[in-house]
Structure formats: C-alpha cells, structure tokens
Prior knowledge:
Layout: H1 2-13, E1 23-26, E2 33-36, E3 44-50, E4 56-62, E5 70-74, H2 99-117, E6 124-129, H3 133-140, E7 148-152, H4 158-162, H5 176-179, E8 186-192, H6 200-209, E9 212-213, E10 217-219, H7 231-244, H8 248-257, H9 261-266, H10 280-285, H11 290-326, H12 330-344, H13 346-369
Parallel strand pairs: 5-6, 6-7, 7-8, 8-9, 8-10
Antiparallel strand pairs: 1-2, 3-4
Amino acid sequence: MGGVTSTMAAKFAFFPPNPPSYTVINDELTGLMVLDPYPHRENVDVLKINTRRGSEIVAMYVRYPMAQSTLLYSHGNAADIGQMYDYSGYGQSTGKATENNTYADIEAAYKCLEESYGAKQEHVILYGQSVGSGPTLDLASRLPNLRAVILHSPILSGLRVMYPVKRTYWFDIYKNIDKIPLVKCPVLVIHGTDDDVVDFSHGKTLWELSQEKYEPLWLKGGNHCDLELYPDYIKHLKKFVTAVEKPRSQRHVSRRSIDRPENSRKSTDVKSTDIPEAPRKSVDQKEKPRKSTDRKEKLRKSTDIPEKLRIHEYKSSTIVNKIEKLNIPFEQLDRSRRSVEFQERPRKSIDVQFDKGRRSLDWVDRVRAN
C-alpha cells in the first residue's frame, strides 16, 4: 500500500526536464564519458552508478586538490545533471522518479565517494536543495559523523508544500520534519523570505528543530530559484564551510555560542556575521572575580548592625505610639517610674542585713569549733 501511495505522490512531486538537458557520450580520443554539449574538463569525471533498486544514475565528480571537504549535492526539482548527480528518471538516469528511489540514489552516490574516491564520512557535507532536501536529510539522519548539512529552500514534507497540515500522515513523502532532529552535525538553512513555491516557514521550522544550528541565511526578497544570485549567498556559504572545517572542539564552542533562535525570529533580514572564536574563555575568566563577591559577604556583618538599630527604633516608636493612643500624661508615667525605682532601693538594705546575719552565724560556728 505504501508503494502505491508513493507512486501516486511521485506524479505530483517530480518534474524531470523533458527532454534532458544533456546526453552522455564517449570521447573518441580519451575513451572517457563526457556530457554533451558541455566541454570536457580534466578535473571532472562523468560516472554511471548502479543503485540497490536497480537504477543506473549519472553523476559527476569534480576534483579540487586543495579541498578539505567533499560536497554531495542533491539538486531540486525540474533540474538534472548539471548538478552533480541525477535521480532515477532524471536526465540520462534510468528508472522512475520515486521517493524511495531517490533514497537509493543518494546512497549509491555516497558509496561511490567512499569506495572510488576515498572520501571519509567526517569530511562529507550534504547539500540538499528544495526536493533534494528529502534524500539529503534521510541520509544525514543515518550518518552520525557527517561534517555538516546545508538545506537550500528545503521542505518540511511533500504534503506540507501544498497544504498547511499540522501532523504527518502515513501517505506523506519526504517527512523532513521528523528526520531533522536526528541529524547530529551542524546544519545551515538558506531560504528566501518571498519564496512562492516552498513557503519561508518551512526553512525556519527545520532550522529551529535542528540539533546543532548554524546562523541561518534568510535572504530578504529571495524567491525559490534565485538565491544564488544574491552576493550574501556565496559569502555566507564560504563562512559556514570554513567554520565546519575547523577542529571539532573549536566548532563545538562556536556552534553553542550562536545557538540563539530568538535572534533570527526578530528579523528576516540577511545575516552574514561570522562565528565568534572560542567564547568559552571569556566565560572562564569571569569565574575568577568571585573573591570580590566573598568580600561582600564579610561586609554584610557590618550592614547587619544598622539593621538591628532600625528594628530597635521601630519598636520604640511603636511603643510611643501606643502610649499616645492611651492618652496617659507623661508626668504620670514619670511618677510610676520613680515609685518603681524607690521600691528597688530597699532591696539593697535587705541584702546588707542578710549579709550581716550570715557573718554573725559564721562567727558562732568558729567559736563552737574551738
């Protein structure tokens, strides 16, 4: 049943260029495959790769000696190989364009990078544009050590492009909204604010759901197929690649320091600030001045004394207020205080008399003893 619905969805989701924009021919001089009508380049390999679902897809590998990363690019709809590798049913690739076939296609392309070109997972960056975000996130959710993921005008899911549904249905395709939380590497999202094919909210939501966020690029006024024309596009892309190519320890610090979704929500303007370097040091330095706070604790003792005085003043003032309410004249209070003092005085004479009596008894006891 799932295969039937996936096939039906494919009719509405995939639009391969017809006719294809190229043909694959063998060069008579070199015997190598080339793309006609494009000129042959020595640093470009044209390949045909077999997938686990029986398709044969066409791909290109571009060599660059100084590269520190390998980019696996999954193109958008209505395009073909001029973009690194073709899906089944696109360009000169065999098979049909379906969701599951695209998953097999990107797996085959990735496997080719590992086996034929020695690419390592921790050096690979997956780049998915539009519908290409589907196979990109599917593979990224299963590769825990990827260097990074770039999502260009991505979709939350196939159904959500057409309808603003709030839940994921079993017949939906490219359920990116459910897969993005499983991606464990840095994620850059690029989206145009005026996209009339895939709403800007798709990219924003995927960025918010990602585990390791890199500062997104919201291109103000950008549509679905023109983001590459903005100068900030390539500028921000270069900064991201440079950042993720740093040692993992430094990248971890940088990613956490810019993990602030609220900043991007305030504005949809273009953001192209670089990642701050090692912000953790400044935090550690702030731990040292704690001694000064300890001194303040000692000073609290001195401040406690005025507090006690204030309490005493408050109590005395309340007593005076109570006396005033009783309308007792102060002269009468003074007389009563004097009578109390007078009664206290005879106590001294009584104490003297008892002392004299005790001494006389002591003298009698001494006489008897002698």
